[in-house]
Task: structure prediction
Amino acid sequence: MSSAALGVRGAAAIFRHHSLQRLSLIGLGTLTVCVALLSIAIGPVTIPVADVLRVIGGLLGLPVAEVPPQYEAVILNIRLPRTLLGLLVGASLAIAGASLQGLFRNPLADPGLIGVSAGAALAAVSVIVLGSSGLTFLTGALGAFSLPLAAFAGGLVTTMLVYRLASADGRTSVTTLLLAGIAINALCGAGTGLLTYLADDQQLRTLTFWSMGSLGGATWAAVGSTAVLIAIPLLSLPLLARTLNALLLGEAEAGHLGIAVQRMQRVIVALTALAVGAAVAVSGIIGFVGLVVPHLLRLALGPDHRFLLPGAALLGGSLLLLADLFARTVVTPAELPIGIVTALLGGPFFLALLMRWRRHAL
Amino acid sequence: MKGQRTGKPARHALALVWLSVLGLSMPAASAPASADGGAPSARLVSVDGAITEIVYALGAEDRLVGVDTTSKYPPAAEALASVGYKRSLSAEGVLSLQPDLVLATDDAGPPEVLRQIDAAGVQVEQVPDEPTIEGLHSKIDTVARLLGRASEGKALRGRIDAELDRLSRQIRPAGDPPRVLFLLHTGAGNDLAAGRDSVADTVIRLAGGENVLHDAFSGYKPLGPEAALVGAPQVILVTKRNLDGLGGIDGLLRHASLSATPAGSARRVVAMDGPLLLAFGPRLATAVAELAAHLGTAP
Result:
């Protein structure tokens, strides 16, 4: 067998492989659009599809017949911002999960499991409870952005801490990673608990929302500030796909490929912390999206981050929207916290993952 | 069903005509505006147990289309659509009941959700929630005004005041007032006790007792095992449901910290109906009288 023949066959294989991945990305994009439309069309208030289409058409500047004002208010002020926020938060959590898993070279790295979300939540809760007393200098200076920025800082500190604890000589230990995550989750949980104790009734109300996560607070203002913060990691992490691919080989190997390993790792840590922090600041802790989504994609598309990262963003957004659709319609007119729904879906998935791992280890 | 989706009085009147013509079985929607106030609000969602009780006491229950999970009395209220816990409302969920008015306390939320409901053209009214008699007065006044039943509201207030007045003249503790400890959800690993500015604190005081934690803290806080001993309560007050869940007085006193208190050694545990004790609504005098009877402060 000549090497030329091998080369041709290899190139053909790569082409076929990548065309599958391109098709998958197009499919995921279509899925996202469909789910977003569903999320706008379905809700506790029954709105005829024709009216939904008229409102959307009106948004796009088409000349359409008048829609009852209450339908318009529900779609424009409630469903649309909520749908956009769901897409942003889901995409952000999933792409952060995919990047962390690449960085740690470990499929169990999830922002929730290793304590990044808990750190972000602790910082956000600190701002809520101490914002008017101990931290006035901060809230005074940053205004509406103090909550997401504090969450970002909290996420950044915990990510760096976990990374320091779990990595030695360029290798990441799974056990140390998860144990450090448990310890950090416990510490941040204790801190949040302490602040809950100190909180007055007014603040407790705001805190209730953090415990299980919700997209219920979606206003256009929240969508705006979140979009500004999440756009940074969402757009720049896919640009680092090749770096993450190289890091998969090992730090030394990535260094040989000409990558400034230490610096790139710090950049990735900061970007994932920003993604998780901004998401947690606006929607509380929503678990398992960052774990499940990259996994599903890796099983289907392989580990290439050039496809994994944008795919995770699309699938993360769609899955979170579907979970939210379920959460807000199943017990109508009340609503389930979305964190319960994602945990119900993600918990069994995580167990299945652990069992697979055990079989491989044996 | 299109005629029912209304936001404006005029259109609502039209809806009523339609409903009566079609004979649809929607009693909640077919409430006529009251005679004395010309209230525009026909479909009402109540997001507070006391407000729900006031609505019933004012005879406006046919307007209720939804209540929150704290609305447990009268039992008929529990058959209405539930909009969930008052602090985690869903904007679209509430809107799906097509209300004209949402009545809530000022601790309902999240605030964004209430703003969204308001933005959808539904009147949202928040009433201060204070566990004082003045607080109850203003709650009744506000609800009565919004329902166009000011005179019924005045009568209800007068009735409650007269009963409380009669009770306060009857309640005379022999010696020092009995020292009471109120525990909320005890036994589940999260023992919450009532401090000052809580409903339980006010009811205990009105019944001639003294809340052992009045000076300790405000609202409800977790209670340490030894804090119960330091307070030296003579009576432990819990809700019936809570006590049943623990398997009666023996179950409650299994906790060493509680059994060593004066109340524990004398086995003086008072269990009251939770919604009656804690609603702080029109049945306040009933709750006070029942507690006073248990405490032995009233004949």
In short: Confidence is low (pLDDT under 50) at residues 1-39 of chain B.
